[in-house]
């Protein structure tokens, strides 16, 4: 299945609508923990923890400020910082509680466990509790990607017309760009970790989930990636 079909899924009979939706995405493909753009550039996405600055002592605040200043001064390329607010998702926690209830041999404990899971689920739903996630997008563009359309054909999604030479050329291009991107990612991670943040690079699955939930904020609450994987949306 085409990984991009996860982002804007449609019914099988609505292939034209699916294509119309995906032409607005700048992403050509997602591979090896990396976003490949239609213009030939590639991106890595880092998820960071947060710090409650106001709860830090004056010395700790100064250390964070100096560390962040050093991080900014070390940058020789642009980055994007994304703050995303979304409804708190405790699906995995609820599923874990339900499994715990399934394993209970005592009928009363089993019933209480199910009631607790139902109570927590409704509490989150009605309280409309939000969570914030913080991301840093690290770019890397080949020099010729700045010229519109030059790499457009090379970095498009795989098609039946691709020859072995096309695939090999695309893979070689990606490998070269990936090396440069990895160096930038390491620079960003080191700089942010020096300020006390925890930094994690999103893998392929996490990237797909990020875009799927972003483009489908309501649908993604009930239809999840693993559920989509069981269906044949690309047929």
Features:
alpha+beta; 2 domains; 6 strands; flat; disordered C terminus
- Give me the strand/helix succession: HEEEHEHHEHEHH
End-to-end gap = 8 Å
Structural class: alpha+beta
Q: Beta-strand percentage?
A: 15-25%
Radius of gyration, in Å, reads 22 Å
Mean pLDDT: 81
**Structural domain tally:** 2
Approximate helicity band: 40-55%
Summarize the structure.
By secondary structure, this protein is of the alpha+beta class. It is built from seven helices and six strands, in the order H-E-E-E-H-E-H-H-E-H-E-H-H.
Tell me what you see in this structure.
This protein is α+β, with helices and mostly antiparallel strands and 235 residues long. It folds into 2 domains: 3-85 and 132-229, no CATH class; 89-128. Helix content is 45%, strand content 16%. It has helices at 15-22, 58-74, 91-103, 107-127, 164-193, 204-215, 225-229; strands at 27-31, 34-37, 42-48, 80-87, 130-140, 199-201. The protein is flat and about 65 Å long. The model is unreliable at 228-235 (pLDDT under 50).
